[in-house]
Write a structure and sequence with these properties.
Layout lengths: L2 H9 L7 H15 L5 H23 L15 E4 L7 E5 L20 H8 L6 H15 L20 H13 L4 H9 L2 H4 L6 H6 L12 E2 L2 H12 L57 H4 L19 H9 L1 H17 L4 H13 L5 H19 L2 H8 L12 H15 L2 H4 E2 L1
Antiparallel strand pairs: 1-2, 3-4
Length: about 425
């Protein structure tokens, strides 16, 4: 007997007289006690139980998220005197700063979050378009026209080109907030297409290129470095959408910060195509972010980040030269060079440069790589097991038709190409 019905049954029919209580007891008797019920009823009860079980199973698999709702009655809000939580001052209502357009008045109710969202996109509200245009500019030039892109207030830096920022904001807004059109306009502009080479007097006067006298030269973001290596190697899986994936990471990386019983207590690496998805889809545990992203200054997402810093550390070189993902990408790139690059070393070196840097090598560069290739061949000719260990990195398998020592030699050459400053920087 269900606990909710035990009291009603114990009291008996003399005291259990409410229709809803009687109906609950009757429903339980019909479903679980009545032995002589017809076959049609039994079939219906069985079908209901199976449907309920299936529904509960589906409900358990559905990912849930919190939804923010307003209270039926707004709480009173006050300006706290000197910031003390127990010293309320003047009562205040929902509104916007006085120097900005006011929220639209709606009779009979206070302004809602929808009203605020519509206010943010109004033509006479200047902040949204300016902030968005500045963030997009920052993506391509490394520094926004307002350098403190996280702070447009009095404590932030004023724009280096205020008229340009105003014009960009109006173009973005009046263009229907078309980000693709806006990005195309930036990357086809003369400011972006200038050479990034800096002459000494320019570098002395304007080291951060705030005057836009030269094109931007910045290191690629963490996700772009990994995706670029996978793309040129041919390993990148370009499928859109889907759940987060868990690529190569050090073993036991989650255990020191994992809670017992949590579904992220232990790191279980994926396999197959999941290892080669774009970095956008990498599952991120905030207390233990992926090292390949943290090493290249990707935020851990424990707090809001409007502007990434760019560092230059030995760990970055260590990762690019030794990380499983990058060594595997170098081996796949080497296999492509041997298969698609031509019949001799010179043609294959040219192919590598074209695939990775979109240009042909200079004579001095070709000479250095040719000498390096000869040294690698000599080394692996005398140490075949080392060559086999090198090309065995990663889950993907090297082509069986390629000689082990030759593929290993070209793998180190491809690794050199992926570590070039020109590969890791946007010039």
């Amino acid at each position: 007997m269900p606990a909710a019905l035990q009291g009603l049954v114990r009291e008996g029919p003399e005291k259990t007289t409410k229709p809803e209580d009687v109906a609950r007891v009757r429903a339980h008797w019909l479903a679980a006690v009545w032995r002589d019920r017809p076959a049609e009823v039994t079939a219906a009860v069985t079908a209901r139980d199976e449907a309920q079980k299936a529904r509960d199973g589906l409900d358990g698999r559905i990912v849930r998220t919190f939804v923010f709702n307003d209270l039926p009655q707004m709480r009173d809000s006050f300006v706290m005197q000197r910031g003390a939580y127990d010293k309320p001052g003047d009562k205040v209502d929902r509104g916007t700063p006085a120097f900005l357009p006011p929220l639209p008045a709606v009779e009979g109710r206070p302004p809602s979050r929808l009203d605020l969202a519509e206010w943010l996109m109004r033509a006479d509200q200047p902040l949204t378009a300016r902030v968005a245009a500045n963030r997009l500019w920052q993506q391509f030039f490394g520094t926004g026209l307002v350098k403190t892109s996280e702070d447009f207030g009095l404590q932030g830096e004023p724009p280096s080109h205020p008229d340009l920022l105003d014009w960009l904001a109006v173009e973005y807004r009046d263009g229907g907030w078309d980000t693709r059109r806006f990005v195309r306009m930036i990357v086809t502009s003369r400011a972006f297409r200038r050479a990034s080479h800096a002459v000494p007097d320019q570098l002395e006067r304007d080291p951060e290129n705030r005057l836009l006298a030269r094109g931007p030269r910045i290191r690629l973001d963490a996700e772009q470095i990994r995706d670029n290596a996978l793309a040129v190697s041919g390993l990148l899986v370009r499928t859109f959408g889907g759940k987060g994936v868990k690529p190569y990471q050090p073993d036991n990386i989650w255990e020191p910060v994992g809670f017992a019983g949590s579904n992220t207590a232990k790191y279980a690496r994926d396999s197959g195509d999941a290892l080669y998805r774009r970095s956008l889809y990498t599952f991120l545990k905030r207390t233990a972010p992926p090292p390949f992203m943290a090493n290249f200054d990707a935020p851990n997402r424990e707090q809001f980040c409007a502007r990434r810093e760019r560092s230059n550390t030995p760990l970055q070189a260590l990762q690019l030269m030794n990380d499983v993902q990058h060594v595997e990408a170098a081996r796949a790139l080497a296999a492509r060079a041997l298969s698609e690059g031509g019949d001799d070393d010179a043609a294959r070196i040219d192919w590598l440069f074209t695939a990775v840097l979109a240009r042909r090598p200079e004579p001095a560069e070709r000479e250095v790589l040719t000498a390096s290739l000869a040294a690698h061949r000599s080394r692996y000719a005398a140490d075949s097991p080392a060559a086999a260990r090198l090309i065995a990195h990663g889950e993907s398998k090297p082509p069986a038709r390629l000689p082990t020592e030759e593929l290993a030699s070209w793998t180190l050459l491809a690794n050199t190409m992926l570590n070039l400053d020109e590969t890791l920087m946007r010039n």
